[in-house]
Structure prediction request, 1069 residues.
Amino acid sequence: MALSSRQAVQRSAGGAIQRPGAAKPARTARVVPAAVKDVFMPALSSTMTEGKIVTWLKSPGDKVAKGEPIVVVESDKADMDVECFNDGILGAIVVQEGERATVGAAIAFIAESEADVAEAKKKAGGSAAAAPAPVAPKAEAAPAPAAAAPAPAAAAPAPAAAAPAPAAAPAPAAAPAPVKRADGRVVATPYAKQLAKDLKVDIGSIAGSGPNGRITASDVERAAGRGGAPAAAPAAAPAAAGAPAKAAAPAAAVAPAAATTVSQLRGTTKPFTTLQQAVSRNMLESLKVPEFRVAMSMETDKLDALYKRLKPAGVTMTALLAKAVGNALVKHPVMFASCTPDGAGITYNPNINVALAVAMPDGGLITPVLKNADATDIYQLSRNWADLVKRARGKQLQPDEYNSGTFTISNLGMFGVDTFDAILPPGTAAIMAVGGSKPTVVATPDGMLGVRKVMQINITADHRIVYGADAAEFLQTLKAIIESPEQLL
Amino acid sequence: MAAFAAQSKSVAAARQGASLQLAAPSVRPAASRLHTCFASASLRAACLGQSVVAPRSRPAAGRRAVSRAQRVSVAASAGKYDYDLVIIGCGVGGHGAALHAVEQGMKVAVIEGHDIGGTCVNRGCVPSKALLAASGRIREMQNAMHLKSMGIQVGSVSFERQGIADHAINLAKTIQTNLKRSLEALGVDILIGQAKFVDNHTVKYSLPGRVDVGGTVTARDIIIATGSVPFVPPGIPIDGKTVFTSDHALKLEWLPQWIAIIGSGYIGLEFSDVYTALGCEVTFVEAMPNIMPGFDKEIARLAERVLIKPRPIDFHTNVIASKVTPGVPGVKPVLIELTDFNTKKVVDTLEVDACLVATGRAPYTNGLGLASIGVDTDRRGFVPTSEKMEVLDKDGKVVPNVYCIGDANGKYMLAHAASAQGISAIENMLGRPHVLNHNSVPAACFTHPEVSFVGVTQEKAEEMAKEKGFPLGISKTSFKANSKALAEKEGEGMAKMLYRKDTGEILGVHIFGLHAADLIHEASNAIATGQTVQDIKFNVHAHPTLSEVLDELFKGAHLDKAAANSSHAAPPKAKQPVAA
Prediction:
């Protein structure tokens, strides 16, 4: 401690500008261990008040030499390499890449020798936790919490995100959870890894939905969206990414929520979010419509084969379904018409806009619309869909992009559902509930027994304008398309 | 004095004009000559005689005169050869050489065994620029935040893969046609076939499986300009679908969701720019300890921050792809075994949808029959070549009348370098000794934003400074301070100049930022013409332009006092009266 006066000078020296004697009185009050020196945010220009750490050129534990650039700082004018003014070992970094610090604030600690590294680390932790207040409050307050805080900060959103989960969770809970790789390796795409880092998700805890259990960005997003609760979250393959049902929602909302959150919810009542309120209102409104249902089985072997073939080109099953429906609707204008509000006429819509129900990660559901599904090619539809889903998750959809549907599809096929019943969205003529496709023993036209993949399609329609035969004829057309899907190209 | 200077200048101008006039007629007959040449051999001899007249009007001295005399004697027996010059390979290098040769009055033929235009036009720089242009637009329009900050809103942006691919194919076709026409218009014969040396004046050419094309031609001089093909390291089977080289990637036949790029040089970087803009994710595999080896370290660091980190890209360095197992698109992933470069131990296995091998290029010199002129290629297949582009034989001696330019000699594997070497070779065969200063040849990587450089890196410059004991100056500027860059909201970028503080010699300039590839030429031309820092400091740049980044860079350079005072190019800054 005999060296304390020297240290005061060193501390004030800052990372880049060595100006002995410039020490502020307040700083001398703090006792700095001899062997640990601070690196300060330098003033790179006369107008600079704070700087952003662009890159640390050295990592904690690296040897640093006097005059060696250790960090890149972005000022109001340029990015500059900041040189180190001491020999030693970079003990700890206080201000991380991408964070800002006021000029003069400590951004790292340099230990003189190996033995002092622990001290530097302690100092970094200490300055983050308690020290800032007495010492140069303005300077250190900003950067300091950032260093120590990540853990609590990450923990905080977790319960918050978990709360609304039940609304959205029911469907995926039933999902065949994406398999974790048998060999225990974690294979994640570059963007998935980046996202995991940004969203503070432990990538090792996620099961991947990509080929061979690969973890994709959407797996990470899903994991993060559910408050980091691991394997419970991911729903099916990316192709089905946004599918969970619209019509299923009212029923699902009362169904038991995901196992991981049930216990926390017992005995509590949660008010609806705005989105959930809207769903509730719409569902009650639907009771005014005389609904009826018509179902048909369709073979999907060829559709599956086509999907497999087009998948490398980015075509999704969702887009294929929407395209098939779009093409079928062309011949059945009443199926995408609507009954006038006074119940006295039919309004034939000009466009075939296929809406698809998507469960939102934070509860509620939304129906992004693939416009002009009949006139848009399958590749474009797939891209449009990917874009819509992405923006729906980011809550960036324009109203026109989720309320302009003239026909709705709800698909629970990827959850292994055989058949279900959808509720008609107000203002439309029909909604189609798609069940899972599974190998089924069928009598073939040539009188043999065969195994075909078969799925159940169930149409719910407004009987004021759509009659049984209309729905049946539409299903016939759709069946013809789905069983000879080449015409979708 | 002033009057005298003015006079001598005008004399010089007049002389120049005269020589231009003299040179001009010699070109035109060359073009029309072609048609007559086939008609009669005697006419051809007359033509060739004429073709060597032009250089004679230029002043010559010493050694040069001797070599010209030799050449004239060759010309006297001109009937001996079909052509003055035969160029094997019609890429950018061969094309550049042909143009210059015709301008010098030579009768020229090119032999091309594949596609006119070579790698650059068909499988390289040209189609890749089309892909980069399209994907760059997409990246720009998808960057909603950036556009919003300029008050622009766009709806959803989408693209059609085949449309982009077609753009690249069409561009290549257009350029190929232009290139072919420009040769035809100048009267250059285009012979189709793969060439093989018979001796240093004779070449046989043929196409496998074709009896209707081929033949033997003789020429006074021959240039090897056969270029290169993608280099594929051992252990990597190319299936053209999931494991491929730039040749296939440029066709953009599909967009893998996740692609590994082996090699993070400029080819790999440009493809990562294309792929990520089109929604793919990229993993680099680099054998060197750093990604982007070969670039100036500081520039590479900045580029990493802008071109790699914010994009869906990750990388493995210090590893080689020791084994690659092709997959099946959408069914089976490609497996890439990574081996540590130093310990040679397998460290990881990647599972990706596709793998692009961008590990550089290998010379395409097989089958040239170099043995018949006593030449051996080096271990990697490059043709040993002197600084005057003369081909060297096994003993390191010049093989008379045979030159080698471009990727085949491995000196600097860039299209425009090949072209410059071609011009240099022609100069040398005409008896005007010429050595191309490769330090003045610029290079560019067309990512968004672009990277460009000329001369040496900072690391190399520091080494040179230490070795030769001169003080090294480093000037840097940022695009952040440039009005035009800020108007575009593209302030990310820097320029750096390395120079000698004692003499003002420019050693290297590196630019990373908007339109860097277009900005570099001021620096490369300065180096080529030997201008110093003192000279270029006084150049004027229009405001506001990106060129002001260089203006600021030059002005930020400071020489040692002594050097500045004794500056040879006394700057015209002084307002003092000048003695007349």
